[in-house]
Amino acid sequence: MLRGMANYYMETFPVGMLQCNCTIIVQEGSKAALVVDPGDEAQLISKKLQSLGVGVHTIWHTHAHLDHVGATKKLYELFVEGNKAYDLAPPKIYLHKEDLWLYDNVSLQAQFLGMNSFEVPQLTGWIKDGQTYEGFDGVESIVTPGHTPGSCCLCVNGQSDISAPKSYSVGKWEKIPQILLTGDTLFRRGIGRTDLWGGDSQKIEKSIKNKLYKKSPEAVVIPGHGPLTIIEQEIEKNPFVRG
């Protein structure tokens, strides 16, 4: 059960060769951040966190493709020590259990794409549908299989101020009441690929229609790549899944 509606600051920015959208979420008055999809450029993510004066409470993954987990190990290592300045424990690392096989085989993913291999740290928790997170009031997980078996989205209920690249804008960024971080499940006028490891076109359509499209029509969508959008626009205009 959601415990309340908090005020949040959120910053979204692309990282790495594949331009994964990494998002930092900080509840008003907190020194602890939730970082979603640190796909690359751990130092850049760290500098943004330092500029906000926060440590990392949780590293949260929408799924386990390499472009969404590439900086997880380095970011974790940086804030095992960095968190001490904020009296925080080492970061927690979350993923859905159905994507563990992808997480454990990032080196094979990298080889398949002709990229350098890398390591990932041990996970500390599994994402479950409707799961909430201590210190982040109004934030809950939505399990949305299809792009991968364990693909998930994160819903932020509250009043959020968003900082994002100007090219990503969908309107005025002031006190948006609901944010959906959809990973590679739902994009602006698009959906995630289902021809990769574990993808399922029927499941992704069901996830979008039955879960994401049931959220507030005014909810702002932060996808895993590319510009932001709004649920009502996708219901009306997304050529892959109409509401």
Labels describing this entry:
two-stranded antiparallel sheet, alpha/beta, single chain, 243 residues, Metallo-beta-lactamase, Chain A, 7 helices, 14 strands
Short characterization:
The chain has about 240 residues and is an alpha/beta fold. Helix content is about 25%, strand content about 30%.
Secondary-structure blueprint:
Elements: E1 6-15, E2 20-27, E3 32-36, H1 42-52, E4 55-60, H2 66-69, H3 72-82, E5 92-95, H4 100-103, H5 106-112, E6 125-126, E7 132-133, E8 136-143, E9 152-163, E10 176-183, E11 186-187, E12 190-191, H6 201-212, E13 220-223, E14 229-230, H7 231-237
Parallel strand pairs: 1-9, 3-4, 4-5, 5-6, 10-13
Antiparallel strand pairs: 1-2, 2-3, 7-8, 8-9, 9-10, 11-12, 13-14
Helix pairs in contact: 1-3
Note down, in words, how this protein is organized.
- By secondary structure, the chain is an alpha/beta fold.
- It has one domain: Metallo-beta-lactamase, Chain A (4-Layer Sandwich).
- Helices cover 23% and strands 31% of the residues.
- The chain contains 7 helices and 14 strands.
- Strand 11 (186-187) and strand 12 (190-191) form a beta hairpin.
